């Protein structure tokens, strides 16, 4: 069984995937100007990091993957909600284009990246994901809003990203599934290493002569 200590050690590694600002950690006045073209390149690198994370999960057993996904979905949903609030309070409207203020750029980037990562995780690990997400009553609403939010950034995101998002929306029934819908990303995980092995069936013993419970006097 994966100990609480292991989960604690894994958590910072997982969180760094979700929380890196688009312009790094420099102060606002020191940060380079981030244009849509520059962010498009940053986004490609982020997606490579997402793939490595998914690959790591796919190489783990069911129990370990479940616990890491449990941490991941908590952070993904929290980040999307918090940054949506930041954008809403600032008055930013996504249809006006990629923002110029660094704080808003970070919020837009974190929403885009976490929506895409969430889509990857659900497509690759649907059974575990649904088990975890049923504890989060707003998850569908959040991903529905988020995937539609991405439509404002077609000049930044790749066609491959939008294809994944379309499959994601079909997988979780945010849109009607096409008749030929197949989830090409589905990953079957090995069961836990600690799972008890099936016991071999007991051999039936041949029954010999029986004593009747009756004694003749």
Automatic annotation (TrEMBL):
Residues 192-217 are annotated as: Disordered. Residues 1-26 form the signal peptide. Transmembrane segments: none annotated. Residues 197-207 have a biased composition (Basic residues). InterPro entries: CC134 (IPR026321). It comes from the Eukaryota. Keywords: Signal. This is Coiled-coil domain-containing protein 134. It comes from Hermetia illucens (Black soldier fly).
